[in-house]
Amino acid sequence: MDIEVKHNFDAKNLTSFKVSCIIENAYFPKSKEELIYLLKILDNSVVLGNCSNVLISSEGLMQNVIFTKNCNKIEFDNEKVYAECGLKIQMASKLACENGLGGFEFMIGFPASIGGAVFMNASAQGQAISDYLLYAEVFDIKTKEVLKLSKDDLKFDYRKSICQDKNYIVLSAEFDLPKYDNTEIQNKMKCNLEFRRKHQPSLALPNCGSVFKNPQNDSAGRLLDKVGAKKLSVGGAKVWEHHANFIINYNNATSNDILNLMLLMYNKVDENFGIKLSPEVIYIGDKSTDEEKIWKILKQK
After folding, report:
1. Going by C-beta distance under 8 Å and a sequence separation of 6 or more, which residues neighbour residue 140?
2. Active-site annotation holds for 4
3. Distance of CA 99 to CAs 34, 38, 95, 113, 160, Å?
4. What rounded mean pLDDT belongs to the chain?
């Protein structure tokens, strides 16, 4: 297949954190079929969508990395919607609205892709990507097989799906969306965008969304605010002054800057409340010794 590949590729501009990170071999399939082909022939490959909650080490990533951004097909059949993994969920939200379909309003301000949203069960404003999902096609890295999993099979939970435990790659998903008045959908989308504008930084300020997951019956942002996290910074990274659960790359931050800042935030909450926050950010790459130590602490159960 004629698949685009780039060697020693800096993925900085493909990540929302805008951290420079050199990738040995970067592949850009244009369809689900090309993606499956690459997954079958490449060993030890990493698959990335819109990189909206991914931090890649500044040390680089000397592996094969497949970017799915061009696998963005979407089809409508009455209330049924089929979407490939690389489709941006903002676009899915807009197109669903144009077709008079609700259920995707909460995704209008998200920078993620369908694959990443299903993988982590993205949610906001009382809605989740799993609400109207019928099934997802996934690639089993272990067996090199394509599987069709129902909503029950995917075992969705808060920021969780079986894909994380089984190392499944989401290829596509189909949804059954409810019919709504177009004006009602647009009003919900407008409200969601306004909420995000007030409570979350614009992507003009490079960030990776929420840094930590909310602990049960509490808010990571509230806990971090209580311990004065808004005043914290390390190197070119700082906590956003308007919400303590966001980190901004304001001056060419490295992954080491960001991880050390995450550790400061984590330790302050642990010391004051005895709560060990769990990262929502996914960190990959050829970690330095310091980064390896920090990530092991942050990923403690």
Report:
1. 146, 147, 166, 167, 168
2. no
3. 29, 33, 6, 20, 29
4. 94
